[in-house]
């Protein structure tokens, strides 16, 4: 077992701040996460996850070796896509290359397919982010295609890749 998923705890805030106060991580995430990332930001995130709608937001702390190693969540879509969720994750830089990301993705998908009515889980990493693409592939996700010029991040127009896994 490489990692465990558990609910967020307020005592995770200090380590979460350290993990996310890293441009290498933030450059691969969606906008909206402040930099520098403060302790108040970490506490606000943990509070918002504890108050989130339980059947639409599935957010967990990733732990490894008894300590915080990252974050993972799936977010249910609406309307005709109500049985689809988008997954997102990040791993602390010191834990890169250890297999924690793919283990966490596998664990979350297994949990969601066993405990919810979700049929499809998808992810949209930046096309250049080979590490994230590899995490998804190792977790059983299929590449569906490239979303050309799909995002603007740090002033650059970027392609993204569309990956998914479906309930068998």
From TrEMBL:
Domain of life: Bacteria
Annotated GO MF terms: acyltransferase activity, transferring groups other than amino-acyl groups
Entry keyword set: Transferase
UniProt key word Cell cycle: no
Domain N-acetyltransferase intervals: 3-163
PROSITE patterns: GNAT (PS51186)
Keyword Transcription regulation carried by entry: no
Protein's name according to its UniProt entry: N-acetyltransferase
Source organism of this protein record: [Clostridium] leptum DSM 753
Organism placement in taxonomy: Bacteria, Bacillati, Bacillota, Clostridia, Eubacteriales
